[in-house]
Every structure is written in structure tokens, then in C-alpha cells.
Amino acid sequence: LQFRIDSAVAPPPRTMSSAAAAAGAAGAVGSAGEAITRLAEKEAREAWSSPEAISFLDRRYVSDRRRAMILRKAYAECGRITSVYAKTFYLGTSFLSEAKRNAVWAIYVWCRRTDDLVDGPRANQRASTLRESLAHWERRLEDTFAGRPHDSLDLALYDVKCNFPALEIKPFKDMVRGMLMDIEKDRYDSFEDLFLYCYRVAGTVGLMTLPIMGVANADESDPVQYSKALREAAEPALALGAALQLTNILRDVGEDRLRGRIYLPLEDLRRFDYSERDLLNCVLDHRYQALMKFQIDRARCYYAKAKSGILLLNQDARFPVQASLDMYGHILEVLENNAYDNFTRRAYVPKQKKLAMLPKSFLRTRTDGVWGALGHLLQVNSPAEGKIRPAGQKPASNDGQMSL
Q1: pTM value?
Q2: Average pLDDT by consecutive 10-residue portion of the chain (404 residues)?
Q3: If DSSP states are collapsed to H, E and C, what string results for the chain?
């Protein structure tokens, strides 16, 4: 396995760029892969005290070391992006173990990049161009899952796939279809239509992260038992995704109006004798307040369903998920306190309030001893959420998602 470095291959001049140096080191062979290999060999030659020879295992060590360095930087960047664009999600998931939070943040960054294809700077492109971009993005996703990442952030996602084999590509592809809905639709006639959108753009995140969080009382070495446990926990995970997206929709009514989008189901507007023109003109009256109350009750139905699945997760994942659920759900209370004005006021939870909520979130996840008793007391005394299922809530069966 010994490999003697050809003494005729001299290091390229210092003035050359790293890419040119790699190409120069590759000599007449010239392929990109061999150029990288030669560059790695050069680094190894400088690192070991015996520069005359380097073993195959040494070269493998250098390659693994470089890969680990790239992954560390990629995961750090995923954490930074998450902390900037999803502050509540970032704070909640910060309590996961390092491996799990890195994985969850890498998934979030992929979702963020997907969303930016239709809501970012490219949003003004023609629909046909956006469809092409999403088709290319889906092919790139397939490459990543097949072990051919295109950049370091893709590499982080591939590393997640390797570390958590139960992670499937289907929810990722379903999210791409959700982005297509944003291109093709700016109105939703029924809640059934809206729920399909909520599943694709948010419920899928619950399915993506479920294998990372892990499920309780399931042996991963037993595929049948573990798959059954995952399926049982999937319905609350989907409910949490729907609750978060419905909260986003209620918070962002004013912003979406400026883009000509109305995500509130039109059947609900008709139910309260409130027109599209009223919404676009920011009419805030008793009709709109009644409409918002109805929408908030619906969202709380899904939060209640999501809470029922917390204890199905591994112990180390319960507190982060409960904290995220509690902090995000509090946005609905802020909206109520703002007299349902989401046209001119943005409902948000200050960081100090989020931190103050953490002890209660922790207690709600405990089932043992005195802590468990206190947690049960908090659950009993918490505000009623979703005691009735609003009319028209039954979701479609498209995409194979579970009925809630």
C-alpha cells in the first residue's frame, strides 16, 4: 500500500491561486479529482517528517480530516443561518444534543434555500423559469441523497442522511411541490386546499426531523418495531407543522396582502361576510375579528394534537420540541392582545418572554416524580386549546399524509 510521491512533481509557484496550484500539481493527467488528490498529497508531504513516502492510509487520513473540517464549517454556517432567519426555532432546538441540532439546522437550511427559490430575489422571475429552477433543485436533492453533494451545505445534508438512515427523501420532494403551489396559486378556496399546502411546506418538516428526534420505546435495530413507532409519532409531527404554518399565515396576513396573496380560505371569508376587497383594504372590524378568532381556534386544534405526541419522542427531544411549540403558539396570544390587527402590527414574542417560558416548557415534558406532578398540573391548568374541530377542517388525502 505504499505510494512514493514522484519527486518530479514540484509544488507550483507561490503566486498561483489554489485552483491553479492544484491543476499544476496534477500535471498532464489534468482531471479535477486527481488535482485534488495531488493537492492533498502535497499537504500530507508537508505534514509528516518523512516526506519521501506516504502510505495509502495516510492519504485517507488527510482526506477524512479535510472532509471533517468542511463539515464543521458547513454545520456552523447552518446554525448561523437558522439563528438569523428562524429565531424561535433556533432557540428551541438549541437544547438538542450537538449531533441532533446540527442535523435539524442542516435540514432547516435546505428548507430555507428551497423557499428562497420562490420567495427570495428570484420571486419576480417568470413562472416557467421558477419551475425550471425547482426542477433543477429537485435533481440536486436526488444527487445529494445519492452521495453527490454540490456544495458544503449539501454535504451537511448528506452527512445527516448517513447519520440518520431513517431519513427519507419523500418529504423533501413534497416540499418542492409546495413551492410549486406558491407559483401556481395565490388563493385557496377551501381549508382542504390550504391544508395540502400546509402539509407540503411545513408538515413535511415534521416528517424530516422526526427520525432526528427519535421515538421512545422503540429499538432501532428492529426495523419493523421502529417503523411502527415512527408512523405513530408522524401524525402529531404533521399536526405541529400545520399549526406552525397556520400561525405564520395569521401573523403575515398584512405582508402577504402586499404581494397580492391571500392564504386565508375564501370559504371562511364568505362564512363571515368578509370579502377579498375588504382584506386588501385592511378593513379591521367585528367581521374580521370573528374571522381571526375562528382561524386561531383552528390553529390551536393542531397545537393540541401536536402536544399529544410529545411523549412519543425520545426523552432528549421532548423539551426542545415542547419549547418550540410553546414559544410559537404564544404568537397567537400576541395576535389576540393586538386586537387581531395583523395589517399594521406584527405579532412576535420578545426574546425575554421566550426565555421566561422555558421552565414551564421543561416541566411539561417531565413524567417522573415531583417534576412530573408539576408538569401535569401545568397541562391541566393551561388554556383550553381546540376543544372542537372547526367546520371544513378535514384534510385531503393527497401525498399520502395522515388524516388528522
Answers
A1: 0.74
A2: 33 40 40 46 47 59 79 94 91 91 96 87 70 94 94 94 94 95 92 96 94 85 83 92 95 93 96 96 96 97 94 91 93 96 93 92 76 48 44 41 38
A3: CEEECCCCCCCCCCCCCHHHHHHHHHCCCCCHHHHHHHHHHHHHHHHCCCCCEEEHHHHHHHHHHHHHHHHHHHHHHHHHHHHHHCHHHHHHHCCCCHHHHHHHHHHHHHHHHHHHHHHCHHHHCCHHHHHHHHHHHHHHHHHHHCCCCCCHHHHHHHHHHHHCCCCCCHHHHHHHHHHHHHHHCCCCCCHHHHHHHHHHHHHHHHHHHHHHHCECCCCCCCHHHHHHHHHHHHHHHHHHHHHHHHHHHHHCHHHHHHCCCCCCCHHHHHHCCCCHHHHHCCCCCHHHHHHHHHHHHHHHHHHHHHHCCHHHECHHHHHHHHHHHHHHHHHHHHHHHCCCCCCCCCCCCCHHHHHHHHHHHHHHCCCCHHHHHHHHHHHHHCCCCCCCCCCCCCCCCHHHCCCC
